[in-house]
Task: structure prediction
Amino acid sequence: MEQDNYLWLEEVESQLALDWVKEQNQRSQAELEQIPVFKPFQDAILSSLENNQKIPYGTRRDGDYFNFWQDKDHIKGVWRKAAFSDFVAGKPKWETLLDLDALNKHEQANWVLGGIDVLAPEHNKALVKLSPGGSDAGIIREFNLETNRFEKDGFNLPEAKNMVAWVNEQQIIVATDFGPSSLTDSGYPAQVKLWSRQKDLNNSQSLLTIPTSEMGLFTFRLEQGEQSYTGVTRCVDFFHHRTYILIGQQLIELPLPEQHDIQGLFNDHLLVSLKTDWLEFKQADLVALPMASLLSKQPEPTLVYRPSGKAAIQRITPAKNVLYLELLEDVSSRLLGLDKSWHATDLTPQANLSLSVIDASEEDDSVLVKAEGFLLPESLFLLAPNQQPKILYQLAPQFDQSNLQVQQHWVNSKDGTQVPYFLIAQKDLLLDSNTPTILYGYGGFEIALKPSYLAHAGKTWLAQGGAYAIANIRGGGEFGPAWHQAALTHHRQRAYDDFFAVAEDLINRKVTQPKHLGAMGGSNGGLLMGVCLTQRPELFNAINILVPLLDMKRFHLLLAGASWMAEYGNPDIAEDWAVIKTYSPYQNLVENRNYPKVLLRTSTKDDRVHPAHARKLAAKMAEFGHPFFYYENIEGGHAGAADLKQSAYTKAMDFAYFWHRLGHK
Result:
């Protein structure tokens, strides 16, 4: 095994590592900021991010509408509410509940909102997660919605990867760092306790402890009307779960297959998506089980919906009498409304849109739906059964799309599997192989790349005449669990072959050629980019590697990495490493090969994917004499930016880099 000379870069905030980071940042920033389009791109993106003409997405509770809002005057953001009737009328009168910028100023802190869990059905208290700089770890503070103040002696937790859920106003369940051996190898809680108000947490009743080799414990609460259940998901690994419901002071394990996802509560039935065949049901089926049958260990499942082979269920949202189901069919959205007999009605407001349910009402069964397309700015629809869809908000275009078009193409991958991709380019695109083109990909963890408005690429890249492509490769969730599982562990190379096939199709169609073709991806998509660099460098002249996994020999030892062994395999097992070593970018980088000048971006505060992945590959490239750009944001977490200005800066850096490398037509 080759010696690793850069283990010292795994010490996240050691002075030696940070000095190296600052040196790389200064060198790269000095060059990237001098690219002529950088400043115009930054200004354009910042104006988009700070534009008050954004849709205030939120949640309805007791006639009010709650929203978290960021703009140029509220960089970290405000949590606020207005009467829902005023919101529907387009004239909301916002009342501020929590001002993060004011809180940060008062506490001389850098809190980023990590989440808000409001107690139902009382809606008078909330558990607020605040993270320093945007990391996954954070503190929990109890917030009083009647006084709009934090409860000094409430349910408050110090910084950790805290998992909490309400049981009732006097109790919550807590999974956190309780001290030695209370965290898993992935860094998530291995123990959950029942915590009563004004009691000592450490001496509270332990509900469940799991082996540290498992992924972790994650709390949840299922609610519909007056009915609620508090529970715990025991993640054996990323894709194998065991579900428990709290009854009294005891967790009851539900008799479900380990490969399932809980989708919600409807009519006192638990909704479950199956990731494997079970009983008489098929992989990808949505089934419903009466809670009483589950708690008595005698499940009585019924089929709610079975998607076709070209479709995948994306999300389930229960209202009072209607179950809303988001479908992705050939990577385009449909919205179905199901009654309590599971009869489905198509409620899709318009074709060729990407739809996401934002909120459903338990009073009138109406639903708020976000709609957008690559070239269509966001709209917010109010939908209800047997009523015409109503557009509440519709954003003005942020770029001129009149000369742009979206095409979907299919290409045969190396093994013959048909893989779709979208191409967004000018209508009068010359097929002369000279169009600067960015190809984006992810391909992992059953995450689908749905069409979304290209506000930033549209104002910068597309406006300059570039083309933008999105590859829907295996490993993602575009066609359900089977599409994901086709690229799991020992079959990982299929995802990479899919991406290469799309790149080659763009070249064969004469859209572009390698000197004008760039690739872009983050996290698991950053690993994809590392594979592009080391396996097919001749295909690309620019590769943007964002918050990536790259050292696949040690990924399971760094931060949350152990939790991803279900996706990639265990490098400590010879059989798994025999496969992983064929694509691990850090191990496959060599000295005597021509590579494009990549841009590596990560964040010091990313406590999910360790910044050492990007650091170590950059250091190795420097050792071998390969040129590269490197930028590490000192804060921002896995998202890479903690506020709007940071986000504008980093996105401008990405697009300016591509324009610098791929050139004009």
Q: What stands out?
A: The longest strand covers residues 227-237. Residues 7-34+402-662 form a domain with the Rossmann fold fold (CATH 3.40.50.1820).
